[in-house]
Design goal:
The protein has about 110 residues and is mostly helical. The protein is built from three helices and no strands.
């Protein structure tokens, strides 16, 4: 086989090949849309994680500080309960502040 003559004759265009190419193009476009990052979903995921972190941090932080206060001041369960309620109040305050800010506002 020489470089001047092709090994096969060129195939004429067929309607089936055109239809297949159109279906492949449509499938590629759908895959690109499906795999592209979606801003709304990511933002909601981050907001949910922040709410969870605020709740857990406030509750656990209040419990730890209340327990430490109880150990130092010997005030049995009162420091623990006050610390727990203060931690819950701080967590909810942070969540309300986050919910009331617009997404384009810088965090405070």
């Amino acid at each position: 086989m020489s470089d001047e003559t092709p090994g096969r004759e060129p195939v004429e265009e067929d309607a089936r090949i055109d239809a297949l190419e159109a279906r492949l193009k449509a499938a590629r476009e759908r895959e690109e849309q499906r795999s592209s990052p979606q801003q709304g979903v990511d933002a909601n995921y981050r907001s949910g994680n922040r709410v969870l972190a605020d709740l857990l941090g406030g509750i656990l932080g209040g419990l730890v500080f209340g327990w430490l206060f109880d150990r130092l001041a010997d005030t049995a369960p009162w420091g623990l309960m006050v610390g727990l309620f203060l931690g819950i109040a701080v967590a909810f305050r942070n969540i309300f502040r986050m919910a009331n800010t617009r997404s384009d506002d810088p965090p405070r």
